[in-house]
Design a protein that fits this description.
The structure holds two protein chains of two kinds. Chain A is mainly α. Chain A has 25 helices and eight strands. Chain B is mostly helical. In chain B, strand 1 and strand 2 form a beta hairpin. In chain B, helix 4 packs antiparallel against helix 5 and helix 11 runs parallel beside helix 13. The relative contact order of chain B is 0.09. Classes of the chains: A mainly alpha, B mainly alpha.
């Protein structure tokens, strides 16, 4: 007997699936922990022009799109597109995987989904050893995934994007982001770099761990009953081309239903086609080679309808036990005792109504976005309303953001902003050489801007608090914000000498007063580097201030939130308008044009 | 203390008095005069690419602000130049363009016109270091009205343009120095005539503002490499009475220069006993701590045991490496993209070393 058969039976019976799953999980982890790890980028020793090492670093590593698995999760793009009433680029990816899944029904769940693979690992390592919590009966939960799918889609139709809370890949990316990414950052870069957690973090981690804990109720409980992304594939299985079929030589041994991780085998050993993930493990275990994966319309010589009988004429190691169940397998087969459709009309209505209530409640609770102080969003974010309709809260932008400028919003702004990215300029400023957040956003909530566009895209405007700012208040010389701004290449903060003392006849005393910062609105993009420095040194280290004296603010007139179009073009138009205004001012002074010459004739 | 540290960072890197006698090639008097005449009458290269630009609230007619009206750079031209143009290198050319524009605006008022010409000389000299045009416009102002003549300023321009003789010729007319900022002493020092500079300083100290005389004497000695003597002069500045206006500024300059001499100029590795010395300096996000080990008059290692920096990249390794390679804290290239961290390491290393000097 092959030793693999005993130790790793699923590898033995369905090797292709396990190999594909392993490769997909590996790819996912590489994309998440390596490609989305920004700190391998190094600046050029002698940079010429605008630095671009973070953007270049990501581009060099991103042979496969970092957000590939998010783009493949069809619920991510469906709900985003539905909520924003817009084309979302990852719809094409979702379409592709759905097309593949017509041939390999629910193949995403069985072969590709890294969360599914991790759940398999969990079930193998823990779930199958702790059996006391196993749910051996059916209940309302068997249709939960459809309710969740319906609920999120109805919410999306009403313009509220809730799918990110429960869709498979966002649940996974957020979970890894809040559980493992801090460890990666802490061990490799230092613990002082790990941002503090808020309640939103803990809820997300609990949700993530909950997905695994469901495994105690049954193997891949999440995938079978809860995952709304999986439900999309289940629904599309109605259009399947291929399906699992059982031939007439079935001996009713029950091994197939015992090994099925998706609870897709009915009591008569035929297929619950909405649930079958084409893992083909059952074909491997079948002693009589009776299970085929064939065309849906191939109707030759298949098993006839009959009542299940748990008896087998064969003996040996595969022989069923007295109650008709295979001895060496877990009693999952019992769960398959249901026959017929699992679609309940009442459940459907409940799902739809429930999500409507959530949407209405949410609107009541949080009010409209414009009533609150606007948050500083990542550079290239689309207008706030569309942003909230597109942001799936996968957390990919947090992972790829150097120094964690982007951090998740907690519960303070209501559910519809939970886990969305905000710029925390007290923690760090947006790197001038980086455009990563837009590159990895799976829905286009943050646009994938080229660096030359990103560096002029205003995410906010720095505002100096003249009562707190040390030089304005006449307390200390300080020019840290200006240094930061010019080091980053924006040169958006200029100097002005204030509190100048005057001697006799009003002449200024050399060196008197303080040089204070003045923000140039046309140049400031709101990166927050200035605020970081002021906060870290003047407030946190020295305790001279309670808050940074220069704060980045967002809102109308302070930021550019373009759905499409060029930020460079916007800046060019502004510059030409300013030039015109200046010219008008000179014309108004009454001097004929062209009179401002170097050495006027009357002085020669 | 912060002020001193801020100035330390720059004072340590640059020479104390702004002079680079080697910069201009030597020229004869006739050559310098030709240069001033040629440049003074033609616009500079950046002229056409720099538009006239100024705040709409600004008055361009040099109106004297009413007494006790406060400081308002958005209205008063002189205050705008002082507070905004002077402080922003990116606006220097714009400022020159604006002043040329005020020649036209004020052409009917002779007094204001002269003021514009003089301000142009000052801007070309102090900011753009365009000494030919500075001399041209200062002379033009002085020719129109003796009150506005600036012979020391023009002499300095000639020296910068390569003619030491012209500077000397002008300076010998002065027995003492009655300028507010000790310009005569400073120019004597700049052209390398340190003894003449100190002689004038001694006279000024008796007859005029002693604090400025001693400050300039200190600067002279620092430039001449006589650091001990410079420290003594700076010490004299601090004992002068008064702590307001120019006196306060002079005392702060003296303090900063003394500090820089101790930390950078007098630093002698041979005089530091073997051992490890520690110090710290503010970096990007807090104190950067440095431990320097000296052995046999050499910097053996520079370590950064503690810091809170985020954007440090290689500077934590690279800057110490450069310090060890150069065996000095002077003239170390800061590490790109982490300049602030680099500077903090350099400053902390310098302080640590100077604390160990015997």
């Amino acid at each position: 007997m092959n030793p693999l058969k005993k130790t790793l039976p699923t590898w033995y019976y369905a090797p292709l699936r396990r190999v594909v799953q392993s490769l997909c999980l590996l790819l996912f982890l590489v994309l998440f922990f390596y490609v989305c790890w920004p700190y391998s980028a190094r600046p050029a020793p002698h940079p010429i022009g605008w630095p671009s090492h973070y953007a270049d670093g990501l581009r060099a590593k991103e042979i496969v799109e970092a957000e590939s698995f998010l783009a493949l999760d069809p619920l991510v793009s469906f709900s985003g597109a539905l909520a924003a009433r817009a084309w979302v680029w990852s719809l094409a990816w979702a379409g592709l995987i759905l097309a593949v899944c017509l041939l390999v029904p629910r193949g995403f769940c069985g072969y590709v989904c890294p969360l599914g693979t991790l759940l398999d690992l969990f079930d193998w390592a823990l779930g199958k050893r702790i059996t006391r919590f196993l749910l051996l009966r059916d209940g309302w939960w068997v249709q939960l995934k459809y309710y969740l799918l319906l609920g999120t889609l109805v919410a999306a139709l009403c313009g509220v994007l809730l799918s990110g809370f429960v869709a498979a890949i966002p649940v996974l990316t957020r979970g890894l982001l809040f559980v493992l990414a801090p460890l990666q950052l802490g061990f490799l870069r230092g613990w002082h770099q790990v941002p503090p957690f808020n309640a939103g973090h803990y809820v997300s981690v609990a949700l993530f761990l909950g997905v695994f804990a469901l495994g105690f109720w049954g193997p891949r409980f999440w995938c079978r009953y809860v995952c709304p992304s999986g439900a999309v594939f289940s629904v599309f299985n109605l259009l399947r081309v291929n399906e699992r079929k059982v031939a007439a030589n079935c001996v009713l041994c029950g091994k197939c239903s015992a090994c099925c991780p998706f609870d897709a085998i009915q009591a008569d050993f035929k297929t619950r086609t909405a649930d079958c993930a084409f893992c083909k493990t059952c074909r491997g275990v079948c002693p009589t080679d009776a299970i085929k994966f064939a065309s849906r319309w191939d109707n030759v010589d298949w098993k006839e309808e009959e009542e299940p009988r748990y008896s087998s004429p064969e003996g040996g190691e595969h022989s069923p036990s007295g109650d008709g169940r295979p001895t060496s397998e877990r009693p999952a087969a019992l769960w398959g005792a249901r026959v017929g459709s699992r679609w309940g009309r009442r459940g459907f209505l409940a799902g739809a109504l429930g999500s409507l209530l959530v949407v209405l409640g949410q609107r009541r609770l949080c009010g409209s976005v414009s009533k609150t102080i606007p948050l500083v969003r990542p550079p290239g974010s689309v207008p706030e309303e569309q942003f909230l309709q597109l942001c799936i809260r996968c957390g990919e932008c947090f992972k790829v953001c150097p120094n964690n400028v982007l951090q998740p919003v907690g519960f303070e702004r209501g559910l519809d902003e939970l886990w969305t990215p905000k710029v925390v300029a007290n923690w760090a400023g947006c790197e001038s050489s980086c455009n990563a957040c837009g590159q990895v956003c799976p829905t286009g909530a943050v646009r994938a801007l080229p660096l030359k566009e990103k560096r002029v895209a205003r995410m906010g405007l720095a505002i100096v608090n003249q009562e707190a700012c040390l030089p304005y208040a006449g307390l200390q010389p300080c020019q840290m914000c200006v240094d930061e701004c010019s080091a980053a290449g924006y040169n958006a903060i200029e100097f002005m000498r204030v509190r100048v003392e005057t001697g006799d006849e009003g002449a200024p005393i050399e060196g008197s007063g303080f040089v204070a910062p003045v923000v140039v609105p046309g140049k400031c993009v709101g990166c927050g580097l200035c605020q970081t420095r002021c906060y870290q040194i003047n407030a946190k280290s020295k305790g001279w201030l309670r808050e940074s004296a220069i704060l980045v603010a967002a809102g109308s007139g302070k930021e550019d939130r373009l759905l499409h179009g060029s930020y460079l073009e916007l800046r060019r138009r502004e510059a030409s308008r300013r030039r015109q205004e200046q010219q008008q001012q000179i014309n108004k002074s009454g001097l004929p044009p062209g009179q401002d010459i170097y050495l006027p004739d009357f002085l020669k | 203390m912060l002020l001193i540290l801020c100035q330390l960072a720059t004072a340590g890197q640059a020479t104390p008095v702004s002079s680079d006698p080697a910069a201009a090639k030597p020229r004869t008097k006739a050559e310098v005069e030709a240069l001033i005449a040629a440049a003074g009458t033609t616009p500079p290269a950046w002229w056409s690419s720099t538009p006239v630009s100024y705040p709409p609230t600004l008055d361009l007619t040099w109106k004297k602000p009413p007494p006790n009206s406060g400081w308002d750079p958005s209205k008063n031209l002189g205050q705008y130049i002082w507070s905004v143009i002077n402080e922003n290198p990116g606006k220097w050319k714009e400022g020159a363009r604006l002043l040329h524009y005020t020649l036209e605006v004020n052409k009917a008022d002779r007094g204001k016109l002269i003021q514009s010409m003089y301000a142009l000389g000052t801007l070309y000299h102090n900011l753009l270091q365009d000494y030919a045009r500075a001399a041209f416009w200062w002379r033009k102002a002085g020719a129109a009205d003796d009150e506005w003549a600036n012979p020391i300023g023009v002499a300095n321009c000639c020296w910068k343009l390569g003619c030491k003789e012209m500077a000397k010729e002008a300076l010998t007319k002065y027995g003492s120095d009655d300028t507010r900022h000790g310009a005569v002493i400073k120019l004597w020092a700049d052209i390398g005539e340190f003894d003449s500079a100190l002689k004038v300083a001694e006279t000024k100290a008796r007859e005029d503002d002693a604090y400025m005389a001693w400050l300039m004497a200190g600067e002279t000695c620092r430039l001449a490499g006589r650091y001990k003597k410079a420290l003594a002069y700076y010490g004299k500045v601090l004992t002068e009475p008064g702590d307001k206006g120019d006196i306060k500024q002079s005392k702060e300059r003296a303090k900063a220069s003394s500090e820089a001499i101790k930390v950078y100029d007098l630093l002698d590795l041979k005089r530091i006993p073997d051992g490890t010395y520690t110090s710290n300096s503010y970096g990007y996000a807090g104190q950067v701590f440095v431990a320097v080990t000296v052995k046999g008059g050499r910097i053996e290692s520079v370590k950064v045991p503690r810091h809170q920096e985020k954007q440090y990249y290689g500077s934590l390794i690279e800057t110490p490496r450069r310090i060890i390679e150069k065996q000095s804290v002077k003239g170390i290239d800061t590490y790109s993209s982490a300049t602030i961290t680099s500077e903090a390491i350099i400053n902390a290393t310098a302080k640590a070393l100077s604390s160990g000097m015997k």
